[in-house]
Amino acid sequence: MSISYDNYIYEHCENVLRGLQWMRDHIPEVGDADIWVKAMDAANLHDDSKWDVREYDAYDRYFYGSRSSEVVRKFDYAWLHHIHNNPHHWQYWLLFQDDPKGKEFVNPETGDRIKTPFKALEIPRYEILHMIADWWSFSWKIGRYEEIFEWYDCHRKKMILNPMTRHLVEDILLNHLRPALIKEGMIPDTIIADSPGAEAPKPDLPAWEHQDREVIGKVIDKRITDDGLEVVVAPVQHSDISNKDDKAKKYGVPEQEKFPMPDADHVRSAIRFFNYVDKQYEKELAEAILKRMKEYGMSFEDFSVGEENRFRNYIPKKDL
């Protein structure tokens, strides 16, 4: 038993709760009361499995001892046990398929299609909040609350996420958490060059948000034409969707609180992800999209919809 490892577990779990409580208090709009209760309940049991005999010694020796080949081998089994017993890890939601052809995973940065035997299932919203709090806990430890954006920037390409999950994760990080931190003065809204000859100040956004809108528009058109499913999430504006009376207006599928459409960018995202809506809500979502397009003065001349995208079935013939 290692006192250092015990202290790490205690401190980490405390920081997860601190981060989640901060989000609940400052960005409550990303979940309703029931979701926040579930997220807090899950966080109160955060990483309990690390005390399990199948994890404890292996973790302790790997992080606080010498990493011999035997220690690494045992840690691999401990890590496998951990991700299979903790749904706040995205790996928990990967379904290994017996299909020898594999499943195509679209790299969110490049659009490259990669064959993988895994199918990424959609992660429940409360576990997404718990997962983000887990990532953010290390920012709380070092007192740099913007570190989570840098971390995600480095790791997002390796994550095999369901497109809807990725959309929600990035929406929470960029359009809710970051603006709230700036508002509270906890992070700067710009990176200031601190040495002669350094680059000029630029927005404190991760690389995945620095995208030329005209260039990415061309890429989006190409990908939609290919398969009708777009996984790149365009930047959207911060919105408040906490008022239950406004759910019918804010959500494309208010019953499930999915496909928020408070602005034109969200409408475009709803179209890209249309094939992921449950069949029973397909018509409802299509009608909501068409209604929002009219409200926001959007036209089908501004973007294309792929042949495989089921939303095409609801587009007026004059616009096809």
Topology at a glance:
Layout: H1 3-26, H2 33-44, H3 56-64, H4 69-85, E1 94-96, E2 103-106, E3 113-116, E4 118-120, H5 125-142, H6 147-155, H7 163-183, E5 190-191, E6 202-203, H8 213-227, H9 247-250, E7 251-253, E8 258-260, H10 264-272, H11 282-295
Antiparallel strand pairs: 1-4, 2-3, 5-6, 7-8
Helix pairs in contact: 1-2, 1-5, 2-5, 3-4, 5-6, 5-7, 10-11
Description of the molecule:
With 320 residues, the protein is mostly helical. 48% of the residues lie in helices and 8% in strands. The longest helix has 24 residues, at 3-26.
What percent of residues adopt helix (DSSP H or I)? 40-55%
**pLDDT averaged over residues:** 79
Q: How many β-strands, per DSSP?
A: 8
Beta fraction: 5-15%
Name the structural class: mainly alpha
How many H/I helical runs? 11
Shape: globular
Spell out the helices and strands N to C: HHHHEEEEHHHEEHHEEHH
What is the radius of gyration? 21 Å
**Strand arrangement across the biggest beta sheet:** 1-4
Biggest sheet descriptor: 2 strands, antiparallel
Question: What is the CA–CA distance across the termini?
Answer: 67 Å
Please mark out the parts with pLDDT under 50 across 5 or more consecutive residues, or reply none.
191-242
